[in-house]
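so im writing up the methods section and need the Anti-sigma factor antagonist record in one place, dumping it here so i stop losing it
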Amino acid sequence: MPSLTFSSQHLPGVTVIAVAGTIDTTTAHLLDDYIRRTCHHGDHIVLDLSEVPYMRGSALHVLLQTHLATQRDGAALHLASLQPGPARLLRVTEVEGMLNVHQGVEQAIRAALQAARPSPVGGPVS
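--- predicted struct ---
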């Protein structure tokens, strides 16, 4: 039976989820369920996909739904460390430009933490 494994870490305003395994029609719902159970409302989400060698269109559906949900909450989805197969899927479906894709997990976490940081009321102080 195919499966995915997950681990997560909560930072201020950011949830980091590491995913390992193949995301296809039989496992995409596991990713969706884990994201829904793990993430706090309004958190930016970083998905570490460094251990995901392959994903199908069903995974893309979960990513796009998560992207839209985080946007509605005033946050964002950040994808990190895509292997060649998943990166190609995003490229050929022309979704890559819609999503926040980062080369490394550290870059994605920095970007998410920066975005989660509240801006000063009234703008920057000079």
